[in-house]
Amino acid sequence: MEITTHLYNEDGSAWDEFVTSHQDSTNYHQYGWRKVVEKSFGHRTMYLAATNRHNEICGILPFVQMKSRLFGSFLISLPFFNYGGLLISEDSAAVMLLNASRKMLSGTGVDHIELRHLKMCDDVVATKQHKVTMILDLKKNEEDQWSGLDAKVRNQIRKAEKSDLQVVTGRMELLDGFYSVFCRNMRDLGTPVYSRNFFRNVLEEFPDTTRIITVIHEGRAIASALLTWYKDVLEVPWASSTRDFRQLCPNNLLYWAAIRFAIGLGVHSFDFGRSTPGEGTYKFKEQWGARAVQLYWQYLLRDGNALPEINTKNPRYQFAIQAWKRLPLMVTNLLGPHIVRCIP
User: What is the C-alpha separation between 296 and 299, in angstroms, rounded?
Assistant: First the structure.
């Protein structure tokens, strides 16, 4: 069957129809994320579609082009999120989409192309396996989920509940509190912060599948998370807590509230988000009973180019991270969105 590829610039209905019908599709294959990225960051997006002789989509590959003096120029599927990459219903569609990508590698002048996959694509040779996502299989009810938790986790949740912490769930009305906690936490980690408008755009584009959960102490947000779900998976891609209140265990109460929310939705999996095996966030998620699922970040490279090393462990970025932690919050909130838009 003849397969052709083209840049998809339609209204997204055919794209999303293909995504919804595919068993391996992820949240970030949805067309709405293209709108979020363009509106929030102003990046050029190039969404490739493969169609068969009946003009039906049989494969997709979304790209965002990123440019910066520090990191260079590259195409990525998709930045800012854990997943993206190839989604095909026919093997020949993968070949055609990758061939089109290789032409884009030379035609756009980018240094490399990065594909973020949950499954290894054998046609792409250069691969990193340095990250995993942590998945918790959910029980059918809260009681069974609670009984399966580690005793230490249950004790920390009880401690938070006894500290008169309040949990609220909502949407745009909780954005300010969420963002204030998020900004403080990112500064303390030495990481530039996304703009408030990015999160607003996410909430506006996906009104039926996003929520904010916030833990309140004496009228102030001290922990908060933005949840998003698709099919049978609820994910927590952005969550933060204020270090000043760590002894009250608000982070544990926050995640337990999110898990309860997921069970109420009837989804089967709770995605804690990506981590580096063995590090602090990995261990935190592991204690909830989450299992590691390998992520495959695969690359199309120019001849002679090495794999990119855009990560916090790269020594060339350590000085900047430590300096960022010492900046006033007002400064990091102002500068952060301009910097982070170029960090995938």
Answer: 10
